[in-house]
Amino acid sequence: VKSATKTAYKDIVELSPVRKRVPKSGVIMVRRGGRKVPAADNLQPGAYKAGWIKVTKEYTDSNRVQGYVRNKTNKQLVHLLELGHKNKMDGSMVKDIPHVKEGQDKGREQLDKEIRKILKQE
Prior knowledge:
Blueprint: H1 2-15, E1 29-32, E2 35-38, H2 47-50, E3 52-59, E4 64-71, H3 78-83, E5 85-86, E6 93-94, H4 100-121
Antiparallel strand pairs: 1-2, 3-4, 5-6
Helix pairs in contact: 1-4
């Protein structure tokens, strides 16, 4: 489970998009209370890609191991990028960027292979 989670994590981070439009200053400004202020760190270019973490939990009472990958900085953005969404400005559809599904599928395939390998040995 740990190695499959690691594989999924690497693939998701590799395929994650990075914000393209960056001002010359390198700092994204947002409106707060009628004036422009620097945006939080989770809105800066590359924050989405850098926000991925992998977690593996071991449950001793049920003898079970569970692993998952999640985005710590922009969790609300994952499904919008993965599935596409409606543009707030003009109502057009924003194209989806499938990056989580591919990493998830590779991790599951690796886990299946390792489980079959263990079962053949027994």
